[in-house]
Write a structure and sequence with these properties.
Keywords: Oxidoreductase
Order of helices and strands: EHEHEHEHHEEEHEHEHHHHEHEH
Distance between the termini: 9 Å
InterPro entries: F420-G6PD/mer, F420_G6P_DH-rel, Luciferase-like_dom, Luciferase-like_sf
Number of domains: 1
Helix content: 40-55%
Structural class: alpha/beta
CATH topology: TIM Barrel
Number of strands: 11
Protein name: G6PDH family F420-dependent oxidoreductase
CATH architecture: Alpha-Beta Barrel
Strand content: 15-25%
Shape: globular
Length: 318
Amino acid sequence: MKLGFKLIAEAYGPREIVAQAARAEEAGFDFVEVSDHFHPWVSEHEHSGFAFSMLAAIAARTSSLGLATGVTCPFIRYHPAIVAQAAATIAILSDGRFTLGVGAGERLNEHVVGAGWPAAATRHEMLRESLEIIRLLWSGGYHSYDGKHVRLEDARVFDLPDERPDIAVAAGGPEAARLAGELGDALFVTEPRADLVAAYEEVGGRGPRYAEVPLAWAESEDDAAESARRLFRFGVTGWKVQAELPNPVNFDAATELVTADHMRDQFGCGPDVERHVQIARPFVDAGYDRLALINAGPDMDGFFDFFTKELGPALRAL
């Protein structure tokens, strides 16, 4: 079991994100993962720094902390060749501490380049081709690729780490989980679903299994639940909504009726360590061994202290 911390790059500016990563290492976290967005989710966020720049700065500020994207869509807004180069560079700068988390993306971030937003089945085909390209470029030398959706012409990544980064593939369903087992090194989810672990393993997946655990720490449960509503109400809409809306104003409209009580159903809210363990336990029971904790609460320093003194030991005991 390893415990990580989710860096919410939509809710905090780039300098604060780097500072939070350094504080996470001091607090005893094993890794951090940072969201890779062009737009934030809702109007309260007001930030969206460039993930790979922040990761480079975090690599320089930390010494043992694992780093990951949570997650990068390696097509449309990016070309997979650029992702392959960026990930290789971060792996070098971090002395091998980097994991490339990838997924099929959201319209929120990808529509900005004006290339359209394909159907989900097409996006999964594009993700498969992108992973094949990244693997090719990490094998060294010049390569070309002529896929159904993505192409590569006579390209080489010159700076490669001695050991290639792991690739963690995000999955919301069995098809993506099988892709993680076929072309990835790890599985990445946001729900405590044992069926995704089973689909990952049935095609040979044997690597780490990452999951994001939704928590909100505050000295009062009410303050924690309200902060979760402000910062993470988009999360209750589900991926069929999250993947399709184009801008924060659309998520504001879609979540207008979400209340703090809705957040209590999905988030561990408040100061009670047992409530947070209750939220985390289903992920462990479903087979996930890399828990990335989200703190949607209003007091980040208080959360880090709480993790060091109470929450971290309680979760490691699971």
